[in-house]
Every structure is written in C-alpha cells, then in structure tokens.
Amino acid sequence: MTHSSDWAVEAHGLVKVFGDNRAVDGVDLSVRTGTVYGVLGPNGAGKTTTIRMLATLLKPDGGDATVFGHDIRREPQIVRQLIGVTGQYASVDETLSATENLMLFSRLNGLSRADARRKSTELLEEFGLSEAATRPLKKFSGGMRRRLDLAASLISQPPLIFLDEPTTGLDPRTRSQMWDTIRRLVATGSTVLLTTQYLDEADQLADRIAVIDRGIVVAEGTAGELKASVGTSSLLLRLADAGSLERARHAILDVLGVESVLTPEAGRITAPMSDPDSVTDLLIRLRADGIAIEELSVQQPTLDEVFLALTGHPADDDAAPAPGDAAAGASGAAPTPELETAR
Amino acid sequence: MTALTITPGASRTLKNHVGLAQTVRNSFSMAGRGLIKMRRTPEQLIDVTVQPIIFTLMFTYIFGGAIAGSVADYLPLLIPGILVQTVVTTSVVTGVQLREDMDKGVFDRFKSLPIARIAPLAGALLADTVRYAIATTLTFAMGFVLGYRPEGGLGAVVLAGLLVIVCSWAISWIFAFFGVIARSAASVQGISFLVLFPLTFLSNAFVPVDTLPAFLQWFVNVNPVSHLVTAVRDLANTATFGGDAWISLLGAAVIVAVFAPLTVRAYMKKA
Ligand SMILES: Nc1ncnc2c1ncn2[C@@H]1O[C@H](COP(=O)(O)OP(=O)(O)OP(=O)(O)O)[C@@H](O)[C@H]1O
Ligand SMILES: [Mg+2]
C-alpha cells in the first residue's frame, strides 16, 4: 500500500454510459505525483469524458477514483480545491475581457480584491496577454483564448492540472510555447494529466502514456515502451505493381523478421522496424526479386500505426469494420484485443 | 512561473463543505459578473425600459377608461397593479437568460471551482434585481407623468418598490428552475408564460375583485400576486405596511425555500 500523496490520480474501472453508448468502459489510471501523464486516443475515444469525471464535472456510472487520496464522489469539493481544469473548449466568459475573467475567477477562488488584481496582472503578463487585457474576448484568436483558459486554471496554483487537448488547433509556434508552459508547470511541482491525439506530443511531454480507444485503455507505459510495441520506427512501402504485394511482404518477413501490415488504402505496406539501417538490406532484396517500388519511407510511428498495432484497427475506423480491417487483423502484426464496444 | 513551488496536494488543509459566508461572497462575485454583462450588452435591457412605458400607457387607457370612465381616479389603483405585473413579467427573462448562459463553456469552469454550487444561479438572479429596479422606477415615473401622485409619500413609494423587487426576485427562482430543466431558451419562455399569465391576470391588479364570478374570486384572493398588489397600494397610497405586505414577504420566502433547492439540485444533476 503506497501513501496517498504518491498518487495524484488513482482510477479504477471508471464507466460512463450515454444512452447505449459506453463512452468510457472501465478505465484504470494511476498518475504519480509530479509527473505528466498523457492520455492518447482518437476522436470519440472517451478522453474528454474521462477527464470530466475526474474533474467532478460528470458523475461516473461505475468505478471509483481518487485525487490525492480524496474520493471524487464523496469529497468533490475537496477535489475541486486541488485541481485546475482546462477543457477542450474554452471555458472563459466571452462577454468579459481577459482581465475581468481572471478577476472573477480569482475572487471565486477566495482572493481579496487587491490580491486578485495582482494575480490577474501577473498571469496576463506571463501568458503574453497584457496588451489584449481589456479587449473583449470575442476578438481573441483561438491561441489567445487557450492561453487565457490555462491562465484561469492556474490561479489557485493547483497541484493537479487537467489539460484536455491543450494544443489542438494551435500553430506550431504556439504549440511549442504551450509545451514549454507545461514543462514549467511540472518543474514547479504540479502534476499534469493531459489528453492528446498526437503521439509526438505525448512523447515529448508525458512520463507515462495511456492509449485509450472506444472507452478502453488498450496500452499503458512509457513512451519508449509504447513505441517498442510498434517498433522504434516504421517502414512505409508503396509498390508500382499491386500484383507483387504478397511477394514484397514475404521479402519483409525474410529480411526484417517482422510481419507487415497492409493498410486499408490498398497497395501500402507498413512494417515496424527496430533498426532503420536494415532498410538497405530490404532494398537490395526487393531489387533482386524484381519488385518495383513507388514510394518508400522510414518514419517515427504515427498514432495511426500505434493503433493499428495495438488494436488491429486504424484510429479513425468507425464501428463497422472497414474492408481492410479484417486483413490487418488477420495479419497478426500485434495482439488484437477484443473490441466489441457498441457505438 | 508565478510561484516557485506548488503546495503539495497532501499537505493542504481542505474542507468538503462551503460555509454561508463563502456562499454569500461567491454569489456576489457572480452578481458582479452579471452586472458587467449587462453593461456590455445594454440591448438586453430593452424589455425593462420599453415594457413599463408601453404597459403603463396601454393598461391605463384601456382599463382606466373601461372600468371607471376616469383615468385619474383609478391611477392609484392601477399603477401598483401595473407595477407588479410588469416587474414579475420581466423576471421570466431571468430564466431564459440563465438557460442561454448555462450552455456556455464558462459554466464548466464554475462547476470545477470550489465554490458554492448555488452561487452561479444566485448571482445571476441577484444581478437581475437591477433590471427590476429599472422597471420599477420607470413605471412609477410613467405614472407620475400621467398624473399619479402617491399619497403615501416618497419613502413609502421607495419601500413599495423594494417590496416588489424582493418578491420578483423570489418569483424569478421559479423561472430559474424552468431555465435549468428546460432544453432550450424558447421552451423556458413557453412554460414560464403558462405560469405567469394566471398569476398576473387572475389577480386584483387591473380589476376590482367583486366584478368577478365567485370561483375566480376565490383564486384571486389566494393568489400571492393579489396580496403583493394590495400591499403596494397600501404603501404607496396610505403609507401603511400591513398584513398583505407580510403575506407577500412570507410567500416570497416560501417560493425561495422551495425553488432554490430544487433549482440547485437540478443544476447539479445536469452535468
Ligand atoms: N454529453 C454527451 N451525451 C451523449 N454522448 C456523449 C456526450 N459526451 C460524449 N459523448 C459520446 O461519448 C463518446 C466519447 O466522447 P469524448 O468526448 O469523451 O471523446 P474524446 O476522446 O474526447 O474525443 P475528441 O478527441 O473528439 O475530443 C463519443 O462517442 C461521444 O459521442
Ligand atoms: Mg475530447
């Protein structure tokens, strides 16, 4: 039994059902204090629903969870004193200016008028919003709104911060600023639980990652462990002649020693690679076999590949199995857990 | 970062309930938000400015002429009736606006903050008393323009105005409840007027009760709005704070005691 302060979040079998849609279907999460935990998943996986339950915004239909040892059902008001929430959609008041928003939330957090003013100025400064401080929010860009939203979550200096897709829709520069901010938060002792659709974001920021799909955690571990389950990099191969697909897959099995996967868009083969260097051997073999290639690349695994490898279906696959899905599953590139969630 | 270290979650002193002092403080912070919004969108005050003027003119000439033949004689009877009717009607807007407001993202943040659950609702209702004050002032002012000279004096008129504002605030909890449970702003308006019309028209606001059939008389006499109208008449015309005023305040307290908890419960359930 570990001390409650070791764990910022402990969730067991969280369930949320909307109608007959099991949006979250038994999620377990353990987030160690002082770390960044990434929840990775495609649209509709249940990321937002999970965060909303942990942040006491939504009552779970099953399971239980604690935040720093406090039960989210029995002690919601305590949990709220320990968390900052930046939702997927900006939760600031559109009719108020940036300063007025921060003043309001500061006052609601129990700060005196003078303290609230000081805090608001400080946060506006820090998030580069000082110049726009008195402008109505309607004229804010998406990135400015996100920054204000995050600033509002930090007023009470909460030890646990939920960030739901903090960088979706941000340009690359603003995204890397957001990453820096998150790193600084952790450096001051905060714990961060963030969701994302991007593997590289989880990779960059998170100490541990849970991959969630259709309400179920399909994999959990460090970024390294996760990538190892897909291979450190991935080979993408498109052939000039679709007729030689099977021969090419055979060559890959021979040279790289792995099963390759036919992606739904016919004619594209992907395969996990532990050693990018071995691609040279593969090219020689393909030339020897007389297989002409149209495109070849070696890349970091994408979220889609992680999904393919972990679940046997692509990330954007919907309830009805796509034609290529059966092929991908049959190829047995990775264990294919049973997924029979009705959507 | 603003602070070098964050106090760890395990070493904070925390409590799981919100005290009365904090509830009041939170509600006033929320009311402050409501006032800023009002300042930003003055067009939302159109109903409380135009309605008292139109209603006062319309009812004075329609009912005043029909009932008494002389408008001036019946102004002391009519203006309090119109006042109550107008201000209670504008309290419907509270529910409608609450519905629209609750759909906004900022309510997610209110829910995630360690504040009194009732504060976002109570604050919105509190801010709306400003609307009632505007409507009250304009109605009395219109009455004055038409020749109404309350015998009770200025102090009694102000007291009467305050009584109407307090009671309308209480009644607005009913509409706030509809606002929380309804699916859309339009349906809030629909249900609210179903409640509002019998309350305001089946009262002694415009017509002497003895002109009504017996079964209506019964309803009119128990209708809290009638008591409020009588209380305002007594105050404005004779400067007496009588039994009807106390009954109105008691009715207001009962409405709040019933609908405030109902509304908060519905609000919390609607995650
Ligand atoms: N309030 C709701 N009522 C009904 N269904 C809902 C509700 N909220 C979410 N869902 C459903 O629950 C499932 C999970 O949604 P959720 O928003 O948690 O996904 P997500 O992982 O955050 O997706 P995204 O990346 O698009 O934000 C979806 O199928 C969604 O349609
Ligand atoms: Mg989401």
UniProtKB/TrEMBL annotation, chain A:
GO CC annotations on file: plasma membrane
Region (Disordered), start-end ranges: 314-343
SUPFAM superfamilies according to UniProt: P-loop containing nucleoside triphosphate hydrolases (SSF52540)
Ranges of Low complexity composition bias in the record: 320-335
Membrane topology: Peripheral membrane protein
Keywords of the record: Antibiotic resistance, ATP-binding, Cell membrane, Membrane, Nucleotide-binding, Translocase, Transport
GO molecular function: ATP binding; ATP hydrolysis activity
Subcellular location per the Swiss-Prot or TrEMBL entry: Cell membrane
TM segment ranges: none
Any single Pfam family the record assigns to this protein: DrrA1-3_C
Keyword Calcium: no
Every ABC transporter domain range: 9-239
GO BP annotations listed: daunorubicin transport; doxorubicin transport; response to antibiotic
UniProt cross-references to NCBIfam families, sorted A to Z: drrA
Family the UniProt entry places it in: Belongs to the ABC transporter superfamily. Drug exporter-1 (DrugE1) (TC 3.A.1.105) family.
Name assigned to this protein: ATP-binding cassette domain-containing protein
Source organism (scientific name): Herbiconiux oxytropis
TrEMBL record, chain B:
Transmembrane segments: 45-68, 74-98, 118-148, 154-178, 190-209, 245-268
InterPro entries: ABC2_TM, ABC2_TM_bact-type, ABC_2_transport, Nod_factor_ABC_transporter
GO molecular function, one term: ABC-type transporter activity
Main location: membrane
Key word Transport present: yes
Superkingdom as given in the UniProt entry: Bacteria
Cell location: Cell membrane; Membrane
ABC transmembrane type-2 domain sequence ranges: 43-270
Keywords, sorted A to Z: Antibiotic resistance, Cell membrane, Membrane, Transmembrane, Transmembrane helix, Transport
Topology within the bilayer: Multi-pass membrane protein
Gene Ontology process terms (BP): response to antibiotic
Any one Pfam family match given in the protein's UniProt record, by short name: ABC2_membrane
One term under GO cellular component: ATP-binding cassette (ABC) transporter complex
Family that this chain belongs to: Belongs to the ABC-2 integral membrane protein family.
PANTHER family: NODULATION PROTEIN J
Name assigned to this protein: Transport permease protein
Source species of the chain: Herbiconiux oxytropis
Lineage of origin: Bacteria, Bacillati, Actinomycetota, Actinomycetes, Micrococcales
